Amino acid sequence: MKTQAINIHSHGGPEVLLAEEVNIPAPVQDEIRVRVHAVGVNFIDVYHRTGLYPVQLPATLGLEGAGVVEAVGDEVQGLAVGDRVGYCTGALGAYAGCRLLKSNKAVRLPDDVSFEQAAAVLLKGMTAEYLIRRVRPTHVGDVVLFHAIAGGVGLIACQWLKQLGAVVIGTVGSEEKAELARAHGCDHVIFYGREDVAAAVRKLTDGAGVSVAYDSVGATTFEGTLNALSQRGMFVSFGNASGPVAPVAPALLAQKGSLFFTRPTLMNYCGMPEELRASADALFFALRTGVKINIGSTLPLSQAAKAHRALESRQTIGSTILLPD
């Protein structure tokens, strides 16, 4: 069957995103075909587009979305035509009106989660889940630094960290984002464009620093993040919005206080079907118990390039979703 998809034939800026008609075949074996109702836009899509994370070309971008199963392969178990599903850890292909997907990469959506909410929250929410519950389990009283706290992952993580009893220090780039962060429970806001992040953190913590710092910004925040950590603190690097971090000498971690440094990915923490389901279940429970989803922008799928420009220029607040035309 034919559908519209946003494809790239070369790496580059948003201009390489092309709306094209593609053919989606019938699913075979353990595949399902999903009629897409909403698509999530994430910074990893930018990395795939630019080639920072190389992909085989041509490619249909996107990892996150939600829709209805409209056909299944003969080996599919546990899913049927008509089921509402979401996904964020499978192969590329979410920027489309219809797509194929391995059935074990889909999670069934609860009735109280809409397609738009699922597309806005699955990848970001499950990223928050593995970061704050498994990479470094959060304990009551932990003081945490989270960069880009008003972004898609940040707003979810902030609320969830507060549920777990943490004190949250977040960085933002504008007064508008600071206000949004505070409204979602952020205890202390630092403006990374005009403040020394490490110095501000030390002042807020009486010189102790934070036990864990989550940094998706990358190159421009690396040094400040490192200097904001307490002795034996953990640096969790999970993105490169400002560019990749330069190689780190292990001796530097010793000099700064026997620090821990890790670069986890969602695919490694939700790669097994049981991990994927457990993470999704934890996220859905968090939503039912107070974590709110912030959909900052909704655009037609054909305007994917506009969504990428806004994301890269840090103009976005909360999650951005695309709706198939």
Globally, the shape reads: globular
Mean of all residue-level pLDDT scores: 95
CATH architectural group of the largest domain: Alpha-Beta Complex
Q: Identify the CATH class of the largest domain.
A: Alpha Beta
Low-confidence stretches: none
The count of β-strands is 16
The structure class reads alpha/beta
Percentage beta strand:
25-35%
Radius of gyration from the CA trace?
Answer: 20 Å
Distance separating the two termini: 16 Å
Count the helices. How many?
10
Helix content: 25-40%
CATH superfamily heading of the largest domain: Medium-chain alcohol dehydrogenases, catalytic domain
H and E string: EEEHEEEEEHEHEHEHEHEHEHHEHE
What summary fits the major beta sheet?
7 strands, mixed
The CATH topology annotation of the largest domain reads as Quinone Oxidoreductase, Chain A, domain 1
